[in-house]
Amino acid sequence: MRQNVLFSVAIAAxxxxxxxxTPVFFSDFxxxxxxxxxxxxxxESVQGFAGMGAAGGTSVFGGNLLRNDSTGGSxxxxxxxxxxLPEHTHVSVSFLLxxxxxxxxxxxxxxxxxxxxxxxDDFYFETTFAITSGSVNYSNSAAVIYDAAGNLGWSGYGEKxxxxxxxxxxxxxxxxxxxxxxxxxxxxxxxxxxTDESWGIDNLGVSVSNIPAPGTLALLGLSGLVAARRRR
Length: 232
Known about the structure:
Blueprint: H1 2-15, E1 22-27, E2 37-39, E3 42-45, E4 64-68, E5 78-82, E6 90-101, E7 114-119, E8 123-128, E9 144-146, E10 159-163, E11 173-174, E12 180-187, E13 197-209, H2 214-230
Helix pairs in contact: 1-2
């Protein structure tokens, strides 16, 4: 019995090596746009998204958002550049995403319309949205804020909204460098951009953490057990 208790304590101690998330950036864009933001964007009102948030989320639209209504794809991405990050092994990103006007998904009348976020040099997440035509749509139901494609402002086609703080694929991404660049943009053969198809983000946050590899946790747990046995 004593051995089992000591083993449990050792494993718990090993797991404790993983640090909690440390916030390194946040902006709601209500007081302007931070200097870390670059590329293509305008700072404007959230319009009809005001007060909206996902069930289970911790963030709601309010005040202003950053909107990208470019027509140039990846060459006119909205970027976030961070330097001097604390030592870490993983990075997580969260934000609210507004999908604005006549997106046609990957199988609509003028398609595909693709949306992408690149986090660092080695990771990207890509998806699509159906508003005016097409049937393929971002499928994380937990992240849905507004999925009715009704008009919430802008050009009158319709909008959708999601909480990407609830998207697990952009949480705990391996990353160790002391600088980080995030690029967000839309592209695709059917992408028209401008006032026809655009997107916006609100409440953009980045955090880092230290998460040991599974083998490290097992080794630390075993070391704890051996040490505990020696003290008997």
